[in-house]
Amino acid sequence: MRFLWPDLLWLQLLVPLLVALYLYALARRKKAAIRYASLSLPKAAIGPGQRLRRHIPPLLFLLAMAAALLACARPTATVTLPSDTLTVVLAVDVSRSMQAADIAPNRLVAAQMAAKRFISELPSNVRLGIVSFAGTAAVVQTPTDNRQDMIDAIDRFQLQRATATGSGLILALSMLFPNDGIDLESVIFETPSIRAGRRAIPLDQAAAAEAAKKKQKEKSLQPVLPGSYTSGTIILLSDGRRTTGPDPLDAARMAAERGVRVYTVGFGTQQGAPIGDEGWSFFARLDEPTLRAVAQMTGGEYFLASSEADLSSVYRNLNAKFSMERKETELSALLSAAAVVLLTAACVLSMLWFQRSRQ
Question: Any residues with CB less than 8 A from the CB of 175 and at least 6 apart, and which?
């Protein structure tokens, strides 16, 4: 627990002062009782139960004052609460290595089956967008809460050559921040020009001006604390190493500057698997160090999934995170309400117990 106005904690010194005043009043009352010829008379009139409950209203009043004075310091605490509406972007590797059969029937089909199960268990507060990446990245589904649209998008995955992990992450980030000036053309395709073989054809003046405007907006971004963005997150699933496109760590820095958590999933067996394609072959292995670094840099987590069941378990774990979140919440209103309840109880009990005795 921390306090937004810690200087007002000095008000808590009034609590022991109130205790001292109450004890002083009891002492004076005791001296007045000595005037009776016999102390057994007032004791018999009061009774043992009455002697005990006469201290309850003052105790409730004291607790009410302590709660009210503590509320003045504006205490905060990190508590777990239901999440607000959240946008999740699922970025999935569809490179040729996803046809490896080390996960039956192959990595792509297993990933699609686990993704559909993930969609069926999504919390109601989550909107899902889907990005696929191989040699470049593409939006497969814009953020939506329509489950059937999500499943149809998963079915549209098609294998392609190369692996541009950084491109997939940047495109997912731009889906969360469509008005943030992320220059997808220059970042994903490496230059703000249209490439034709080895020759770069410059953009026209209007397009160049727009690219410069986006770049200027990107420079003016004020970085925030990594993981502090609570309205959206990214899940990045990959089974191999980057072979083209921007560095995933550079893309991770862009996400970290915007406070977006990136949860990374390494999909495949750790020993890897041979892939044959059109007369040539290669060996597909995970790039766990990069995936771990992306997650660590953005305040997310890294998961290893070596089977469809593992991947479904990872998605189930993430769904639990998305339905509940830990927030720093101010407790002043709660303490003030408690003070009102305690004060009301003290007044009611005092009237019920002691007003009758005076009649």
Answer: 87, 89, 129, 131, 139, 142, 143
Q: Give the long-range contacts of residues 116-122, CB within 8 A, separation 24 or more.
A: 116/151, 116/154, 117/312, 117/315, 118/90, 118/312, 118/315, 118/316, 118/318, 118/319, 119/147, 119/150, 119/151, 119/154, 120/147, 121/315, 121/316, 121/319, 122/88, 122/147, 122/319, 122/322
State the first-to-last Cα distance of the chain, in angstroms, to the nearest integer: 48
Query: Whats the size of the chain, residue-wise?
Result: 359
Strand 232-238 and strand 262-267: pairing?
parallel
The one-digit pLDDT tens for each residue of the chain (359 residues) are: 788 888 888 888 888 888 888 888 877 776 665 555 555 555 555 555 566 777 888 888 889 989 988 988 888 877 655 556 789 999 999 999 898 888 989 999 999 999 999 999 998 889 999 999 999 999 999 999 999 999 999 999 999 999 999 999 999 999 999 888 787 776 566 544 434 344 444 545 555 555 555 555 555 678 899 998 989 999 999 998 899 999 999 999 999 999 999 999 999 887 777 776 655 566 667 889 999 999 999 999 999 999 999 999 999 999 888 876 666 778 888 889 998 999 898 888 888 877 654 44
